[in-house]
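Before relying on records like the one below, remember that each one covers exactly one chain. Contacts with other chains, cofactors or solvent are not represented anywhere in the record.
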Amino acid sequence: MPMTATVLTARALLLDMDGTLVNSDAVVERCWRRWAERHGLNGDEVMKVVHGRQGHASMAVLLPDRPMEQNHADNARMLAEETADLDGVIEVPGAAAFLASLDGLPHALVTSADVALSTARMTAAGLRLPELRITAESVGASKPDPEGFLKAAAELGVDPGDCIVFEDSGAGIAAGRAAGMRVVGVGPRAGLHHPDALVGDLTEVRVEALPEATVRLHIG
């Protein structure tokens, strides 16, 4: 449930995917716990790091002495593994209706997944892909770096301060804040990082379209 009933107004909404629109926790757990076991790492500790980041960035945190080229190669294998495993990938409750309510309003997907993985997971969850998608291929730095959110705002022609980010992870919330944006947290992970507003899922968000492509969010 939200911390308080909240009304926010913005000119654009920037949406994370995993944990925000798509519940992919089951496959993320499977793939990363296998990876942890291969590298002799504690699976619980690994899971505290990986949400929200690109895989190579997570690997750099977890294996700080390993050359980055090895992390990039390992991440390519991980992406292929995750893209092939869609068992249990479903929408976060309310995601399809939420996306439908954004038709004609400025919004973008901003995800640490690549094009293939984001397309596969959104399709598996029965969700439409926003026209503007900022994926792993689009940026040089992973969340918590704000590059992805700032690039989405620029492509939409909207000032960062007029954007609202929807995120579930600490890395994503930090990226939104670093971009100078307000953040709506989705789900229990988000609540640990003190977003501007918090919802259990997207059934708790109502979108109202105002003149000049402005969005009013009723949260709660």
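The first strand starts at residue 6 and ends at 10.
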